[in-house]
Write the structure tokens for this entry.
Amino acid sequence: MQFETDTAVDKAMDLFWRQGYAGTTPQELASELGIGKGSLYNTFESKHALFMRALRRYSERRLEYLTDLFSAPGPIRPRLKGAMTVLAGVGEHQRGCVMVNAAAELGTADDDVNRIADHLFTRIEAVFRQAIAQGQESGEFSMDRDAEAAASQLLASVVGLSVLVKAGGPLERFGAVVDSIVDGL
């Protein structure tokens, strides 16, 4: 059976996101992708290799989203709030961030996951830093805050919110947290 590997990686990412790495069996992956286990291994080599491809795909998409969001004209504050909301999964679903989930599940045991997560988190922090500096230049944010430290705070807040979203709770609370953090800039 022929299948599109990009679509298969997307489906696998969704399954890993819902169930975690350890909670997803190769048989479940094969079923989700509509292929046999042999085809799964022939195409992706291993469950772990497919997981790494899924994490890289997730990273690419998140970074594309941020690039598009912050290259658009207009005030920074609402875009920064939107970015934090989307990255943490607030209102989108109750699964948090797939990268935060992967780092929490496998970070101490899997250097590959650590590398991919660190790359994404470093890039997100850089985007936040640039957005904060732009907001400071436009007068939206106070010049009293160090943009680098504020970007680190935003990243830590997104990671923490992602965990809270996954644990459940009222969406209003999460929105209020995002508003408070960004308005504090």
Summary: Residues 111-138 form the longest helix (28 residues). The chain has a mean pLDDT of 91. Residues 122 and 155 are 9 Å apart (CA to CA). The two ends are 53 Å apart (CA to CA).
